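User:
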Amino acid sequence: MNYWLLKSEPDAFSLADFVTEKTTVWNGVRNYTARNYLKKMEIGDLCLFYRSVVKPAVIATCTVVKPFYQDPTTDNPAWVAVTVELNAIFEQEVPLTLIKQTPELQKMLLLKMSRLSVQPVTEAEWDIIHRLGN
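Assistant: Predicted structure:
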């Protein structure tokens, strides 16, 4: 199993949208590095759902339920999407400020490549963030 972090701006796709839809196509990724991570996702992989821009924080978890396929928002075969299903909303949001202050999370890609919308997370990072959120 792999672990990932998926970033979304609230005006593009919010937690409320995720709660309503429960399952969503993660599309519109137009960065080659993020696209390559999408291609590595497998059914059952776990993802942290991260709200960016406004009060940045990890706020929920989701699971990959369909591995990569042609992004339905474009005819360009270079771009792919995956389908994810909402698992749980954290009892407490895990704000970016707390992630930055947590010594065990200092090597997170989120802190090094803050603009990357899809990124891997280690199992240890997943466990720490999951514990902080619950």
